[in-house]
Amino acid sequence: MKFMRPNETLKNIGICLENIEGPLIRTLGAALVIVTIALITSLGFEMITFTLPLLYKSSDEVTISTLLKWLHTAFTLYILTLISVNFYLCCSTKPGYTDNLMAELVRLTSNASANTNQSNSAADQAEVPLMSIESTESLVLNQEPGGHTAIQMEEMGRNDPFGVLKMKRCRHCKHPKPERAHHCKVCNKCVMKMDHHCPWINNCVGHFNHRYFTLFTIYASIGTGYFSFMNYSIFYDIFFQESEKRHFKVPASFFGEIFLLLFVLSTALSIMIGGLGAMNLYYVCTAQTQIEVLDNRWMEKMARAHGGTFVNEFDVGTWRNLRVHFNIRTRSWRGWLGLLVPKRREPVGNGVTYTKVASLVRGNEQDGDFV
Fold it and tell me: In the prediction, which pLDDT does 152 show?
């Protein structure tokens, strides 16, 4: 009987774990999305049907209590809309994969090969079969950058709008890898300006949905904090006051366990999401992603060790960074009001090139509104 060495066994176990990691996290993510939707719905339903009627008694006459009840109801529906729309956009918007760059590279390679074959055919007066797209893609995947002839490189370079020929290749998927892109092992794809893979939205946070993720964390922390604030007096009255001293008279159908669970969850989530949102907002203000923060700290440490100073080329100033992130192209305060409207808005750039200090100085068309 042949036994494997311990190192080989551990290596095989590691490979198996890597193979099942992605499907497991994606399955967990689908469940967490359902949990999030149920939680948002439950908090909104409880607020409108239980909390507000208990805090503000209804009356046939127009009173301060009635006005406050309708104002709070309107705000609850509004914040629920902001949370729900941005959560949906987080989940449904692709973060930006490099598939289109791979397709562009395949097209360039295919055209260059076709033109080269046609030239050879004309010279040799013989017909040479052209490569199919599938065979070209297979060739590109297994070919290292620079593995073309000088004639092919010159031919491809004439029509390369994304600059894929000069890009590095991902060591996992072999796709062209633009700056700020990273390979997600869960999605098994390279993601443009990848921040992290979030199981709560069952999606990566990248170039095309980072704006929605930021708004979702902001509004979710506000919404859960608002729920806890409005329910605190009821919570204290029911669970810490003696029955004869209670101020609120709860209906007979009141489920204390469910109310307690929602109150504790909303309080904990307001703190957790608030912390996550604050950290994410700090990264946005400094033009970094969660992945880039670690790299930048290392480069800053190395620069100091050699007597230099590290400069983040994407950091164009706090307010400009925020405007670029949210795609606010006006300096007027009215531009920020767009964040209060739940809608889809495309980010700045195509996920290949980004706003930099140098591009602002040169006055690139993409960044002209942010100078």
Answer: 56
